[in-house]
Write a structure and sequence with these properties.
The protein is mainly α. It contains five helices and no strands. The longest helix has 30 residues. The termini are far apart.
């Protein structure tokens, strides 16, 4: 089955360029890397941004089955609550990609706000963002464990 190119909002083209520009302050190697992080952040932050105008798409061939497609499938399944979105056909592929593309569009705004506020410190800001997310997850786990401990007699 032929896979389509992965869409990115045309109005976000400059953000992708700045985040991958190694001659300036870009900290990512490829647009795919930015896209995958943005989709993850968008989903975690519940920021989904529909769009119509697309920049040049990212070829599906640069994505990997074990990591990239697995994450895209997980987000699409969590969002849709429909197992048929994982079927191996063009309609299911398009549905799950639209979900992830829209989360990536929303997540890119979060990344841009946090990392490019001070481009010279983008890498430090990226590490801080990762640590704060890790701490947030640990806090949630601790809270859930505390609730479970209170409920068990």
């Amino acid at each position: 089955m032929s896979r389509r190119r992965i869409r990115r909002p045309k109005e976000q083209e400059n953000i992708y360029k700045s985040l991958t520009d190694s001659s300036e302050f870009g900290i990512f190697a490829t647009y795919k890397d930015v896209f995958m992080l943005a989709g993850s952040i968008g989903f975690m932050e519940k920021k989904r941004k529909p769009f119509t105008g697309s920049a040049e798409g990212i070829p599906w061939t640069v994505f990997t089955l074990e990591t990239d497609e697995a994450l895209i499938n997980a987000v699409a399944l969590a969002e849709s609550n429909d197992i048929s979105i994982l079927e191996d056909n063009s309609d299911a592929f398009d549905k799950k990609m639209i979900i992830f593309e829209e989360y990536a569009a929303g997540g890119l705004e979060v990344i841009n706000n946090k990392l490019m506020e001070n481009p010279k410190l983008a890498l430090n800001s990226y590490f801080d963002m990762i640590i704060s997310m890790e701490n947030e997850i640990n806090d949630k786990n601790r809270n859930l464990k505390g609730i479970a401990d209170m409920l068990s007699f």
